[in-house]
Amino acid sequence: AEPNKLKNANVLFVLGGPGSGKGTQCEKITATYGLTHLSTGDLLRAAATAGATERDKMLRAAMERGELVPLEVVLDLLRSAMLAAPPGSPGFLVDGYPRELDQAVRFEADLAPCRSVLFFNLDEAAMKLRLLKRGETSGRVDDNEATIVKRFQTFQKLTRPVVEHYEKQGKVVKIDASGSVDEVFQLLQKSLQKLGF
Ligand code: B4P
User: Fold this and answer.
1) What are the structural domains, with CATH classification, of the chain?
2) Coiled-coil region(s) at which residues (predicted)?
């Protein structure tokens, strides 16, 4: 087998419900700390709009239904993106992943161990408001009322157990995501400092 070039990578998983602000905060972390930001949502949207193949259509349909796309697709995209990252990056922010327990297990077995999980905590009413606001201009197939409800269900059923799995390992850093973008970033910086960044 090919040697695993990623096994010593410094990996932080970034989780939170849809609209909790994880993508927004990851961009701020990247600008300040130089970590490499990989959003599985962004990778999938880029893959899905690239062509009109059956696979692209299948990805778009899953996102439009607020469901998860197949694990292998996400894992392949992540692996390629991590291998293509510039060398010497202090670490990876893996945003929106793992969204189900199998994704966590496969990532850690095949790619790299997870050091910590940053979890953005916010109630559904607030997340929904943010997503509907974004939906006014985003053009995203999933920023509408019906899909948002489905995304919340997917989060509770499949992603919650991932957070619990890492809580048992003492790896979860919980961040109150209810404040303004700058307020949340202040809290986040304190947590990152504790993690040694
Ligand atoms: P994502 O792209 O991850 O979508 P998301 O959960 O909505 O998060 P996002 O990062 O975009 O939004 P954010 O909270 O930052 O996933 C989309 C879909 O892709 C999934 O439903 C699934 O189908 C598929 N998918 C992705 N990853 C997958 C995986 N691993 N496995 C299988 N399928 C996968 O921000 C939301 C809005 O809030 C923004 O408009 C932002 O400006 C605003 N906002 C942020 N912070 C704010 C604040 N503090 N105050 C006010 N507004 C704020």
Assistant:
1) 11-191 (3.40.50.300)
2) none
